[in-house]
Design brief:
The chain has one helix and 17 strands. With about 250 residues, it is mainly beta.
Length: about 250
């Protein structure tokens, strides 16, 4: 009797195991139906939002400007987000036969109360990798409306570019002088060029470096106003305008 019960139990177990095995093997049987789906995402040209100001030496970080720049609030697919507004401070009038030279006072990140270089910020979300070119032009001479700093020029030095992580920065930069010419309206100074597949995303074109990361400090001498020695200087505030242009091709 006991043998019969044991035999029945063994038979039931074997049958259950066979059914489970058959079920598992069925996954790979000839009767299995396999389908493949194609999944996708499509990207289109960006724009419509504002890119906040970034640190010109570390574009992955945002900063709070102190007013020595113009935050444009532009929203196009290729746009200037920030352009510099050079401030040469308050200087004492001096005599002499040499040209007068004054370095611009550095802007600050108000969040950390740290100096940063003057810079221009570019956003390119066209998604075509066509590149771009940044230039500047002095469109009026330093003047108070009555008196003019004839022959004054702004010297831009140590121009460099950096992009946010994962993108390639513009590969070509130039230094030079911004000079106003009453007849031509001023000459164009090219500052940076992003070749094909460069400068996509957010890039900062800066003038010099700070020593925040232990490097050499050059930003404090990278924007210089030079006034000829024979130019009359009066006790007043002089202002000049610079036009910054971002072209859609390198």
């Amino acid at each position: 009797m006991k043998s019969s019960k044991k035999l029945a139990a063994a038979t039931a177990f074997a049958l259950a195991a066979t059914m489970m095995l058959s079920s598992a093997m069925g996954v790979w049987s000839a009767d299995t139906d396999i389908s493949v789906s194609e999944n996708k995402i499509t990207f289109d040209t960006g724009g419509g939002t504002v890119t906040p100001p970034v640190d010109p030496e570390d574009p992955d970080k945002e900063i709070e400007p102190d007013g020595k720049e113009v935050v444009t609030d532009n929203k196009g697919s290729l746009r200037l987000d920030v352009v510099p507004a050079f401030d040469f401070g308050t200087q004492q009038i001096t005599a002499g036969t040499e040209n007068k030279k004054y370095n611009a006072e550095l802007p600050k990140d108000q969040t950390l109360d740290e100096a940063v270089p003057y810079y221009a910020q570019v956003t390119d979300v066209r998604g075509i990798g066509a590149g771009w070119r940044l230039s500047a032009k002095m469109t009026s001479q330093f003047s108070d409306g009555t008196n003019t700093l004839t022959g004054a020029k702004i010297k831009l030095k140590n121009v460099a570019a950096k992009a946010q992580a994962g993108t390639t920065a513009p590969g070509t930069t130039w230094s030079g002088d911004l000079v106003y010419d009453a007849q031509s309206g001023g000459s164009i100074l090219y500052l940076a060029s992003a070749a094909v597949n460069e400068g996509m995303g957010v890039s900062a074109v800066r003038f010099g470096n700070t020593d925040r990361d232990g490097g050499a400090l050059t930003a404090n001498e990278s924007v210089e106003l030079e006034i000829p020695a024979d130019t009359q200087i009066y006790k007043t505030t002089y202002k000049a305008t610079i036009q910054w242009t971002l072209g859609a091709t390198p």
